[in-house]
Structure formats: structure tokens, C-alpha cells
Design a protein that fits this description.
The complex is a heterodimer. By secondary structure, chain A is of the alpha/beta class. Chain A contains five helices and eleven strands; from the N terminus they run βαββαβαββββαβββα. In chain B, helix 5 packs parallel to helix 20 and helix 7 runs parallel beside helix 10. The N and C termini of chain B lie far apart (55 Å).
Chain lengths: 226, 750
């Protein structure tokens, strides 16, 4: 059987793409580079939308990216069930593309924040979190200036009622509503996260934690069992 | 309105030119006339005035900086030395590292955010132009007193500028310094360092060889930013055109710079670049004259082809514009289509603006008329050189005689420790560093607050093989030490950066420096400069680490008050197996704690004298370079042998602060015993010392290694518990240390 193929999207200003590709390799899957200007998902089994500043983000984070040629392919595929994980800018893009509800706004502190963040995995029944225990506390780095999750009261209530808050901060770094660090869509295949699992996968480098590996082993398990 | 062409200059030989407004002296202007055999055109004057400015020509510093070459130690690691965009060092396994530090002090005072941001942008392009992928940045910052109102304007802006620009580029910020002193109040120092990686056989140089090769300008379009004096020139030459005062601080676009990085790397990989130069200070003037001077010697440029953001720009302004995110490449004609295709892929505008010639002249045209016709070397390399007079400052002897011996020693050492630990210079800098991305690219092994930043060498490049190597980088500088004795102060700056690299287990290899001083026209400042350069060059020779490049920043003064002389020194080291790096501080319980090196009663320029007594006088600690070298050898060998669990450099605040920081690293306490006078033991700032944590079972082996290299090793105690205990002297819970250490900056800056 050929290895599971996880696409890693690169916009011109994407920054964490090689980090994501490295993490995909580490768990034994194949990372497939996807270019923003191509109408081509290269038949991948899942997609990782990494962090960065896709098109400079001078307008609103992710506001232009959702119109990229690649997104024309990705949006319907995600609606049809393709597993997609967006972290940081990737999460912002998923919200702008309406694959996930709500929006990410300027941190309450008005400062960019880079720190090792304790979070709780609230749902382990998504495509990207099955390797974790329900309620497991883990450490992942956050690094963003616009990570404050906001949505209408109805949306927040619905997310909470339907168990779609996937990851919650323990010690809110940015003023997000309900300490929300990550959410999923109704089907559980699309997940958006502000923290960066790809920076917590090796002892030697990155955050002092390898807790990020679980996101990658989760998707690998799902794809191999599929 | 007519253009000031060469033809016009010949027919109007006596037309007065505004050279003085451009900062040029009469004798310098006379020399330009002598070189050209006529008066310069406005455009030529623009070129000579910026290329012969202090910033570009090093006219006051050159005679001193030569020592970095004449006294340079033999180094097999040095691949490219001074004079290029940045030095390049062999780090093994076919890899090379290139690094440089540069100042952006004055712009950062005028407009802190953009000034600091474009400082990062500029140094990153220097590294790119060597053929390297930039892999990390760090910043050495100096501000006025922490509680001064203007510091509240400058510091947050500078930090935000660095944060915004560096984070958008995707470069981890792995270290640096934040120092406060009233002397920097009107003259903050923003020194930005960048390091890049490349394959050793892929070095690119700033050169334009091969007549017929095309000159390509690519990146951002040219606008009126950073023009400074050129508007004087334009309006003087064209009477009716009243150009509004142009903004003198550049504005950065990090997204364009990120595109440029990826674009350049693809251009290098496709082998379609013959020579390359970034556009920094003096913009097109600098790039064309330097490329031409180092190549075949001639270049023809049509300035009308330069893409403009503001179509009203005159040629003089185009030549002097410091618009950011621009590069200039020399490309073989047959490679132009491939070059353009790569630029298009990355949405980077690129334009052929001229070609290399063998005429020995740099010729530029505007609207069909020749407006520049000069030998490029006369602007690039043959600027004026000054032997500025220098003399020891009148108050120097009195300053040195006013030793800290007269200062009252504290009765309560616990209170003294906490007072120092919470003082702005020693307090936790997380308020600053948490605004920088330290993880991007996933190669960061150690970052602030570690003694040095350490990176794994792991880049995807043609011909690259897997390696276990890593590099370490640190910057240091102590203006108070340098004020007391600039010769020793520069050596101590080098010694500390060298030591900070060594405590991580990396072997120091090479040096970059940023020399921040007052006005070179003040003989007393010039004396400080001459002494500092002499000291640094001598120390580099003794320690066997060559200077690979750097930058001089003069005129850091307000009125007659200059800053403390502040040589900031960056050291790069290499570690064979990066998995063997030594973390900062106490990493576990039950480890033996040892102090390496000799402690003397040295309080001149110390943090204690500064914080407690507001005193600056006497002499700085002795710079014992042989002891530094022996200490570094022990640290590197011990790391290689896996003997160290943690280590930490001793510097500002002495052993007391080093112990506190070592406890704070992982929240592990320690109990230690001091034999001699506890005040000196805890707060003296003697150099060539480090604190280490060693597993008990290998302590004998480690002590033997120290003895072999004649490095004094004093067992102080053991790690463990939740307090720092100095037997019979003081006891502070780690939680109280943390509260004191972390509270200061947030209280000041929100």
C-alpha cells in the first residue's frame, strides 16, 4: 500500500509549510506540495493549510487567499469530506472561506504573542484529534497577532452544544471567546486551530513538547484505516 | 525644464552645485571635479555625495578598521572576508554560514516602527545577496532609561517593527539584547543581525562581469522614500519644481521581501545569476557603482526604465531613493527568459535597465541624454579617507580614578539580589521576545533567554547531505565598560559573546561587529573609536576568530552629549552534533553545581554600581583572553563528551544573577556555599566565568578536564528544591525570584 498523501499548501507568503511537511514525514506519511496558483489537489488524501501571511495579509488575514485557484478545488473537496487542517493563517483562511464559522481578530493585548501554550483537547472524534484522550491537556506553541476567535452568540452556543470546540486554551493568550483555540465543522473533517502542532513534534527543536504529533498520527490512522 | 546632462555640465562649468546641502565638503567636491575634468551633473553629484557619505564610504573609520584585516588570525574557516555584503564561514559538511550585524539607529529614533522594520529588511537582503537562505535574525537594542517617557514611545515601536517585519518573513528571532541606559535617550541603538545558510560552492558575489550581460532591477518599485538630501538637489537644479520635503525614513513591505527571498533562492538554484547586490543605503547609486567597479568595469543604464511608484521622481531622486525590497542582478542574455519566468512565478516585478560594458565607465541616460558618465570605482572604492584627530577625553583619568571602592557595600544581600534581578537591564525580557516568532522553520534548538541562539543545520538545497551540525550565535556589548576603557570594553564584548556561544557547546568561529559611537569629528569620540577597534582587533587575533564584516554607526549623539561608546559584537560558532547542545540553567534535581573561572573584586561599570549607586567609574573587569579561551575549550569538550546537563554564562550582575537565572530556567532551585566574601562572590563581574550543572557520577571526569586546561573549577553545591539558597547568606523561593524577574517590563510597558 502506498503511503498516505497529505497535501501541504503554499501561498506566496506561507511560512510554516516546510515545518508541516517535516511533521507529515515524521509520522510516515508523504507530504505533497500544493501551490496556491494551481487548480490541482494532486489527488491527496488530506490537506494541511499552514500558517504564514498568505498574500501579505494587509487587508484581513486570509481574505484574499480564499479566492486562490487552489481554493476553488479545496472548498468543494472539503465540503465533500476531504480532511483539512488549517493552523493559524490556515484557520483564518478556513473561516474566510466559510468552511468554518466565525473569525479571527486582533489579539486583545494588541501584541503578537509567541509562547508555549497549555490547551485541552475537547473532542477526540475529529479526523485530526483521534490520537488524543478526551480532555487531554497538551502543550503547543501559539504565535500570532490575530488569533482572537469571535463569532455570534448563536454560533458560539451551537459550537458548544454540538461539541465542535475541538481545542480550548488553558490560560487564554488572545481574548478568544470561550477560550476557543480550535473548532471543527459539522462533519468533523475540517479543523481550524490557532496553535501550531507542527512546531511541537521533535525533542530537539521547537516547543518543549512533542504533543503536536498526535494531530499527524490521527490523520495517518484515519487514512490508513479508510 | 531641462535635464542636467553631461553636455549641459560641460557648457555651464561654473554653475553652482548644492554639494554642501548634500553633506559634501568643498575639498571633496573639488576632487569630484578633478576626477571628471568638469563639474558633475546633478545626477553625478547625487551619486558621489551618497557614496562618499560616512555611512557608505567609512571615510572616518577606514584607517582603523584595516586592523581587522592586518591583525586577522589565520582561519581555515573563513571563505569570504570583509568588503562583501557579508562574511562567509565554512561550518563543515559542505555547508557555509553567512552573518552580519548592521545598525538602523537614526531611523529608529525618528520613526521607531518603520526604522526598526527596515533595519531587519536591509540586513536580510545582505545575507540573501551572498547566495544564502536567511535562517534567523536577532537584535541588539539599546534604549534610554526604562522609565523615561520617550522610551515608552521608542521601545514598543521598535519591538513592533522588528516583530511585524521578521515574523512576516518567516525568520525565527533567536536572541539579542535589550539594554537601558540614560545615555541612549535621544539615540536608541537598533542593531539587527541576520544569519544565512548556503552550500559552500554556491557563494554569490556583488560583481558585474561579462560585457553584454544584462542588469536587472527586481523587487519593489522605486518611490520617494529615504531620499533625504536629493530633493535639495532636484529643486536646486530645477528652479520651478518645488518638491515637498521627502520622507527620510523608508517604509517596509515584508511580504515583498519574503517573495524576494524565495525568488532569489529559485534564481540561484536555476543558476541564472552572475552577480547580485541588494539595494540598501544609496539605492541604485550604490548597486550600480559597486557592481560595475567589481566586474568588467563598465555599465550602461537607462534610468527611464526604472519602475517608479511616483512618476514625478527626477533622476537624482531615483539614484538616491532608499525604497526597500529591491535587488539588482547581472544575468547572461540567454538566461533572461528563465530569470523572468521565476520572477513572474513569485509575482516579483523585474526589469532590464541596462547592461555590462567594457568601457570602464558607468553611463546613465535619461530621456535620451547622458546624465552620468563616471569611472565607477571612483565612487565605490576611492572615496575620501580621513585620519581624524583623536585624543583621550579630558575627564578620562578622573573617571578611572573614581573607583567603586568608595561605594558602601550592602548589609542585606538578599535585598540586593532582588533589587538587581528586577532592575530593567536584568529583568526578564519576555515582554519583548514573546512578540517574536522563535519557532518558524523548525530548526530552533535554543532561543532567548538562552545564552546563545542555536539552530539545527537542515535546509533543502541542491547537493546538500544530512548533517548533525548546528550553529550558535550571540551578540554582546557593554557601553559602561567601554566608556571606562574602550580598548578593554570592546574586548569584553567579544569575550562575552564568545563565551555565550561556548556555553552551548559550540566552538566560536567568526565575528561580526556593529560599532556605535558619537561624532567622529569630536577627537574624544574618535579616541574611543580608535581604542575600541584596536582592542577588538587584538582580541580577535588572540582568540583566533576573524572579523568577517560589520558596520560603523557614527553621530549617535544629541548636541555635544555622545552615547557611551558601544561596540556590539556578534560571534558565530559551530557544534558538530547539535543534539549535544547544552541547555541554559539548571535542568534537573541532584546535579552538582560548579563555578568555572576566577573571581576578583571587580565592580567598575558593574550592574550593582549602576543600579544601587548610579555610579560609573574606575576600570572595567580585566579581559583575560587566555582564560576565556581555556574556558571555551573546556565547555566545548565537555559538551562533546556529554558531561554537562546545563550551563550559564556569568556576566552582568555576577554569580548572584547567574544563579537566579539558572534556577528560573526550569524552576529548579539550588543550594550553594561560598567560601570567601559573599558580596564579592555574588556580585563581582569578573569575566571568563561560567556556571555549570554536572551529573555527580561524571563530576570527577569533568573536574579533571578543567584541571587539564587550567580552568579553576569550584564545586558550589547541588541543584534541587524550590528555593535558591546561599548557605548562611540568603534564601529566596524560586517563585519569588520569578515574580521579581518577570514583573518589571510589563509594569513599564503594559
Amino acid at each position: 500500500m502506498s503511503a498516505a498523501r497529505v497535501g501541504v499548501v503554499t501561498f506566496p507568503g506561507t511560512l510554516d509549510d516546510q515545518d508541516a511537511a517535516r511533521a507529515v514525514h515524521l509520522v510516515g506519511a508523504q507530504a505533497v506540495p500544493l501551490w496556491h496558483a494551481d487548480h490541482d489537489l494532486k489527488g491527496v488524501d488530506a490537506v494541511f493549510l499552514p500558517g504564514g501571511f498568505s498574500y501579505g495579509d494587509y487587508l484581513r488575514c486570509g481574505a484574499i487567499s480564499r479566492f486562490a485557484p487552489l481554493m476553488d478545488e479545496l472548498i468543494p473537496a472539503a465540503r465533500a469530506g476531504l480532511p483539512v487542517l488549517g493552523t493559524c493563517n490556515g484557520f483564518q483562511i478556513l473561516c474566510e472561506a466559510h468552511l468554518l464559522p466565525g473569525a479571527l481578530t486582533r489579539n486583545a493585548s494588541l501584541h503578537y504573542v509567541c509562547r508555549d501554550q497549555r490547551v485541552r483537547v475537547e473532542q477526540n472524534d475529529t479526523a485530526w484529534t483521534s490520537a488524543f484522550g478526551q480532555g487531554q491537556e497538551i502543550v503547543l506553541p501559539v504565535k500570532h497577532g490575530e488569533g482572537r476567535y469571535v463569532a455570534s452568540a448563536d454560533t458560539i452556543a451551537e459550537l458548544e452544544a454540538t461539541g465542535r470546540v475541538v481545542v480550548r486554551y488553558i490560560g487564554n493568550p488572545n481574548g478568544s471567546m470561550n477560550d476557543i483555540a480550535g473548532i471543527t465543522n459539522e462533519a468533523g473533517n475540517v479543523v481550524g486551530l490557532m496553535p501550531h502542532p507542527e512546531h511541537a513534534v521533535e525533542e530537539l527543536v521547537g516547543a518543549p513538547s512533542t504533543d503536536g504529533l498526535g494531530f499527524f498520527t490521527s490523520i495517518l490512522k484515519k487514512l490508513v484505516n479508510a | 525644464m531641462s535635464t542636467d546632462s553631461v553636455k549641459r555640465a560641460q557648457s555651464t562649468p561654473d554653475e553652482p552645485m548644492p554639494f554642501a546641502e548634500l553633506g559634501m565638503k568643498q575639498d571633496e567636491y573639488d576632487r569630484v571635479k578633478e576626477i571628471l575634468g568638469r563639474r558633475p551633473t546633478g545626477s553625478e553629484l547625487a551619486i558621489y555625495s551618497v557614496m562618499w557619505s560616512e555611512h557608505c564610504s567609512y571615510k572616518s573609520s577606514k584607517v582603523h578598521l584595516r586592523q581587522f584585516a592586518t591583525k586577522a588570525p589565520k582561519s581555515e574557516a573563513l571563505l569570504v572576508g570583509m568588503g562583501e555584503n557579508a562574511g562567509v564561514v565554512d561550518i563543515g559538511d559542505g555547508w557555509a554560514a553567512t552573518f552580519k550585524i548592521e545598525s538602523h539607529n537614526h531611523p529608529s529614533y525618528v520613526e521607531p516602527h518603520q526604522g526598526a522594520a527596515t533595519g531587519v529588511g536591509g540586513i536580510v537582503r545582505d545575507i540573501m545577496s551572498m547566495g544564502a537562505r536567511p535562517i534567523a535574525v536577532m537584535d541588539a537594542l539599546r534604549f534610554g532609561a526604562a522609565d523615561a517617557p520617550d522610551t515608552r514611545r521608542v521601545l514598543p515601536g521598535v519591538v513592533e517593527g522588528i516583530s511585524h517585519y521578521g515574523n512576516c518573513l518567516g525568520l525565527p528571532n533567536i536572541g539579542g539584547e535589550v539594554v537601558f541606559d540614560p545615555c541612549y535617550i535621544g539615540n536608541p541603538l537598533v542593531n539587527a543581525l541576520c544569519v544565512g545558510l548556503l552550500r559552500k560552492d554556491q557563494i554569490k558575489l556583488a560583481t558585474a562581469p561579462g560585457p553584454g550581460n544584462k542588469v536587472v532591477l527586481f523587487g519593489a518599485s522605486t518611490g520617494p522614500d529615504g531620499i533625504g538630501g536629493a530633493s535639495v538637489l532636484a529643486s536646486a537644479t530645477f528652479e520651478d519644481e518645488s518638491h515637498a520635503k521627502r520622507p527620510a525614513v523608508q517604509v517596509g513591505d515584508p511580504f515583498m521581501e519574503k517573495l524576494l527571498i524565495e525568488c532569489c533562492l529559485e534564481l540561484y538554484a536555476a543558476d541564472v545569476v552572475v552577480g547580485i547586490q541588494d539595494l540598501g543605503a544609496a539605492g541604485v547609486s550604490c548597486a550600480t557603482t559597486e557592481l560595475a567597479a567589481k566586474g568588467t568595469g563598465g555599465m550602461a543604464v537607462d534610468l527611464n526604465l526604472v519602475p517608479l511608484r511616483d512618476p514625478s521622481l527626477r533622476p537624482e531622486e531615483i539614484l538616491m531613493s532608499e525604497s526597500q525590497e529591491r535587488m539588482m542582478a547581472v544575468v547572461r542574455p540567454e538566461d533572461i527568459p528563465a530569470f523572468m519566468a521565476i520572477c513572474e512565478k513569485w509575482d516579483v516585478p523585474a526589469t532590464v535597465i541596462g547592461e555590462v560594458t567594457d568601457t570602464g565607465r558607468l553611463v546613465m541616460t535619461w530621456d535620451g541624454e547622458v546624465i552620468v558618465d563616471i569611472p565607477p570605482g571612483t565612487a565605490a572604492d576611492e572615496g575620501p579617507v580621513y585620519e581624524r584627530p583623536y585624543q583621550e577625553p579630558a575627564g578620562q583619568a578622573a573617571l578611572n580614578a573614581d573607583t567603586p571602592d568608595r561605594l558602601e557595600r550592602p548589609a542585606d544581600l538578599r535585598a540586593t539580589l532582588l533589587r538587581l534581578l528586577g532592575s530593567p537591564n536584568l529583568a526578564d525580557k519576555e515582554w519583548v521576545t514573546s512578540q517574536y516568532d522563535r519557532y518558524v522553520r523548525s530548526n530552533t534548538v535554543l532561543a532567548q533567554p538562552a545564552d546563545a541562539g542555536v539552530l539545527r543545520v537542515s535546509e533543502v538545497m541542491a547537493g546538500a547531505e544530512p548533517t548533525t551540525r548546528g550553529i550558535a550565535l550571540a551578540t554582546d556589548g557593554n557601553g559602561r565598560y567601554a566608556k571606562l576603557d574602550p580598548y578593554a570594553g570592546a574586548q569584553l564584548a567579544l569575550a562575552e559573546a564568545y563565551r555565550n556561544v561556548a556555553v552551548t557547546g559550540a566552538k566560536p568561529l567568526a565575528v561580526t561587529n556593529c560599532l556605535n559611537f558619537g561624532s567622529p569629528e569630536d577627537p574624544e569620540v574618535m579616541w574611543q573609536f580608535a581604542e575600541a577597534v584596536r582592542g577588538l582587533a587584538d582580541a580577535c587575533r588572540t582568540l583566533g576568530v576573524p572579523v568577517t564584516g560589520g558596520n560603523v554607526s557614527f553621530y549617535n549623539q544629541t548636541g555635544s552629549a555622545a552615547i557611551h561608546p558601544t561596540p556590539v559584537v556578534g560571534v558565530l560558532g559551530v557544534i558538530d552534533d547539535v543534539a549535544r547542545r547544552v541547555p541554559s540553567g539548571f535542568t534537573g534535581e541532584g546535579l552538582r553545581v560548579a563555578l568555572l573561572g576566577e573571581t576578583r573584586e571587580e565592580f567598575g561599570g558593574s550592574e550593582w554600581a549602576h543600579v544601587v549607586h548610579g555610579h560609573l567609574g574606575g576600570l572595567p573587569p580585566q579581559a583575560d583572553l587566555e582564560a576565556e579561551q581555556a574556558l571555551a575549550t573546556v565547555l566545548v569538550e565537555a559538551a562533546r563528551g556529554g558531561l554537562l546537563e546545563g550551563s550559564h554564562d556569568l556576566s552582568d550582575g555576577g554569580l548572584a544573577i547567574a544563579l537566579a537565572e539558572a534556577c528560573l530556567a526550569r524552576g529548579v532551585g539550588a543550594t550553594v556555599t561560598l567560601n570567601d566574601d559573599p558580596f564579592t562572590g555574588l556580585f563581582s563581574e569578573s569575566a571568563a566565568r561560567a556556571l555549570v550543572a554536572v551529573r555527580p557520577e561524571v563530576f570527577e571526569e569533568f573536574a579533571a578536564l578543567c584541571a587539564e586546561h587550567e580552568v579553576p573549577c569550584y564545586g558550589l553545591g547541588v541543584t534541587g528544591g524550590d528555593a535558591l539558597v546561599v548557605e548562611g547568606v540568603l534564601e529566596v523561593p524560586v517563585s519569588e525570584l520569578r515574580e521579581t524577574h518577570t514583573g518589571t517590563l510589563p509594569a513599564l510597558f503594559g
